[in-house]
């Protein structure tokens, strides 16, 4: 029982912690969506290749939990109408973007961007994860539902005042995704095309081709992984039993305590969020700028294929899926793993994020 008490306290403290450069507030935003999802949640293309008889409708209003951080300054800056929508990956929550300080290192990108941009951010828990709505039926949590929530949320933030404390509407919204979060943002652009509400996309730890041979079976039904916390969940909700796969194979490039923390506060995601990443291999009609970033030591995508060293080839392969994009950039962070934010190379990655946000915002 002590383990789960500590996990809850860590989540609470990280949610309310305020950095010197940041004022952060928890928020809950209701978002209504009306979408068609495949009847088979194991459909790797999330219904994009299905006929009408293979689809069903999901219409509901879901609560989206997030942590809104804005520069702690009384001066209005030229960046005040720019917002980063931060979307975590599989088994994580919004806490991925602001984990507790560890061994005097601050792994919070939200705090970093407040100080270095300065830029505001809203880190959200995707549908089914963290403190956002978790439908009883896990098959309601599919790419069409979860990505539609992100797109609709972005539209609300651009058109409706006072959704976030102390902030008005935002003219420019940049989607920043990690792993499955990148795939959700990508799916949204496939559906929305040139009508996407995102001014630019920064997609990390996600490629159109999965290096499946390097991935051990680390996922299982959440109620089997941790019956104390998740015994009552639909078996279609999964979690990760071993987070080492998300870090570099070189143990000197990250703190082992970060892996322990990951295991302690691991969350859940519906099986569809795990299998529907096949949509990344489909072409998007999105017209904004796009950047993809991976770590050379990413055990899911790069280890076993030369550490993604062929940047020219990968730029061509990945860029071909964004034919209408204003620009496309592909970057490899040397030495970093799947969790770019959580190893010793994070500061360099954060600087790249801020550079791209500035570039995409036209500032």
In short:
The chain is α/β, with parallel strands linked by helices.
Output the keywords.
363 residues, alpha/beta, Rossmann fold, 8-stranded mixed sheet, 3-stranded antiparallel sheet, 11 strands, 21% strand
**Global morphology:** globular
- The residue fraction in helices comes out at 25-40%
The named CATH superfamily? Alpha/Beta hydrolase fold, catalytic domain
Structural class: alpha/beta
> Which architecture per CATH?
3-Layer(aba) Sandwich
The CATH topology label is Rossmann fold
Low-confidence stretches: 1-18
Describe the protein:
Residues 1-20 form the signal peptide. Residues 85-342 form the AB hydrolase-1 domain. InterPro entries: AB_hydrolase_1, AB_hydrolase_fold. By secondary structure, this protein is of the alpha/beta class. It has one domain (2-361): Alpha/Beta hydrolase fold, catalytic domain (Rossmann fold), CATH 3.40.50. The protein contains ten helices and eleven strands. The strands form two sheets. An eight-stranded mixed beta sheet has the order 1-2-4-3-5-6-10-11, with helices on both faces. Helix 2 (109-116) packs across helix 10 (346-361) and helix 3 (143-159) crosses helix 4. Mean pLDDT is 90; it is low at 1-18.
What is the element layout, followed by pairings?
Layout: H1 2-16, E1 22-38, E2 55-71, E3 82-87, H2 109-116, E4 120-124, H3 143-159, E5 172-178, H4 180-192, E6 200-204, E7 219-221, H5 222-225, H6 227-230, E8 237-240, H7 256-265, E9 269-270, H8 271-275, E10 290-295, H9 311-319, E11 328-333, H10 346-361
Parallel strand pairs: 3-4, 3-5, 5-6, 6-10, 10-11
Antiparallel strand pairs: 1-2, 2-4, 7-8, 8-9
Helix pairs in contact: 2-10, 3-4
């Amino acid at each position: 029982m002590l383990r789960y008490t500590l996990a809850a306290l860590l989540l609470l403290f990280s949610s309310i912690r305020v950095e010197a450069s940041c004022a952060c507030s928890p928020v809950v935003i209701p978002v209504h969506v009306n979408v068609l999802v495949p009847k088979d949640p194991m459909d790797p293309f999330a219904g994009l290749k299905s006929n009408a008889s293979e689809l069903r409708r999901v219409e509901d209003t879901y609560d989206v939990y997030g942590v809104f951080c804005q520069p702690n300054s009384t001066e209005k800056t030229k960046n005040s109408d720019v917002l980063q929508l931060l979307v975590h990956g599989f088994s994580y929550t919004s806490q991925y973007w602001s984990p507790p300080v560890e061994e005097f290192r601050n792994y919070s990108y939200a705090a970093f961007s407040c100080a270095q941009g300065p830029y505001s951010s809203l880190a959200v828990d995707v549908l089914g994860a963290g403190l956002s709505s978790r439908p009883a039926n896990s098959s309601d949590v599919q790419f069409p539902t979860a990505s539609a929530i992100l797109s609709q949320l972005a539209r609300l933030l651009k058109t409706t005042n006072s959704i976030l404390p102390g902030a008005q509407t935002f003219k420019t919204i940049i989607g920043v995704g990690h792993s499955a979060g990148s795939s959700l943002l990508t799916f949204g652009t496939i559906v929305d095309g040139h009508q996407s509400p995102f001014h630019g996309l920064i997609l990390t730890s996600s490629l159109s081709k999965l290096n499946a041979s390097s991935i051990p079976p680390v996922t299982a039904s959440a109620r089997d992984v941790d019956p104390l916390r998740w015994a009552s969940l639909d078996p279609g909700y999964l979690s990760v039993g071993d987070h080492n796969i998300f870090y570099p194979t070189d143990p000197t490039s990250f703190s082992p305590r970060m892996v322990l923390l990951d295991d302690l506060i691991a969350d859940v995601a519906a099986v569809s969020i795990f299998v529907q990443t096949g949509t990344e291999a489909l072409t998007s009609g999105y017209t904004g700028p796009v950047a993809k970033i991976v770590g050379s030591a990413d055990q899911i995508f790069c280890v076993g294929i030369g550490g993604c060293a062929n940047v020219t080839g990968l730029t061509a392969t990945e860029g071909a899926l964004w034919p209408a994009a204003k620009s496309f950039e592909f970057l490899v962070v040397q030495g970093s793993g799947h969790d770019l934010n959580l190893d010793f190379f994070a500061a360099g990655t954060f600087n790249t994020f801020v550079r791209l946000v500035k570039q995409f915002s036209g500032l």
